[in-house]
Amino acid sequence: MASAEDLKFQEFEEASELLASNPEATTRSISDGQSHVHVNMSFNREEEEGSGEETDQTELLGKKQQQPGFWTFEYYQTLFDIDTKQVLNRIMGSLLPLPGKNFVRHHLRNTPDLYGPFWICATLVFTVAFSSNLHRLFQRSNSTFHYHPEFNKVTIAAIAIFGYAWLVPLGLWGFLQWRKGSSMAVSSYTLLETICVYGYSLFVYIPTAFLAVAPYEWLGWILLSFAMIVSGSVLLLTFWPSVRGDTRLAALLTVTCIITLHALLTLGCKLYFFSSWRSTASDVHHTTAAVPQTVMMAHTTLVTHAVMTKHT
């Protein structure tokens, strides 16, 4: 067995010689080195964490500084930066309103756009004007009627549709902001989100306008009523959660105004653009306007014939 002397730490001869030649030299133990290394590592980690936080803060400040103002072209360019897949998803959401699915929360997701609402309104304007002229052509009451296209319907459709899709959301947003200041239970969407909801809710009227060309009055009422129900459901399911926390009277009045304005748009569209009685009245107007010209031409012909007979 090893003795106690053998188990003691012994200094190497080279180390002893070095210490003898340089008495002022100091020795360092392994534990000292380990503790020193540990301190350096912790210090480096603190530096890395500090630099990482500074980098994140710098990036956030840079993003805030790079955000363009609403008076710049770049600000509005971001509102049209949307891909086709997102637009189609939002269109499908407006065509299939389901209970419990808020259009803003499930489809917009804090990224409203103006690309979809603008082109939906523009397409609807020309679709309604074109379909209305075709409907009037199919509703002609007699074979002597000469068709005259009514280009003024494009202007009227543009005023009605763009006015509804942009001014009504503005008024609703302002009202909800006012009610939000009066009652903490009322929530409100942003102005862009409100405009976006109204714009996409009108998409269902585009195929409806094409189908309403058929010369059947009852079919036109059914199609437009169905479109009004689908589009109105999108608005109701979206804005009811915002106003249900308000007083009962205020909530009912708000929802009633939303549905009433939507119904008035549909009713006006049916009576002005796709009504058979208006087409008949227009036919009578053109026919009666042509009668005096025919009588005048006949009278002129008779007078000319009488004069020529007298001279002969």
TrEMBL record:
One of its GO terms (molecular function) is small GTPase binding. It holds the Pfam family Yip1. It comes from the Eukaryota. Residues 95-266 form the Yip1 domain. The chain crosses the membrane at residues 114-134, 154-176, 188-206, 218-237, 249-273. Keywords: Membrane, Transmembrane, Transmembrane helix. Its main location: Golgi. One of its GO terms (cellular component) is Golgi membrane. GO terms for biological process: vesicle-mediated transport. It is a multi-pass membrane protein. It is found in: Golgi apparatus membrane; Golgi apparatus, cis-Golgi network membrane. InterPro entries: Yip1_dom, Yip5/YIPF1/YIPF2. Belongs to the YIP1 family. This is Protein YIPF.
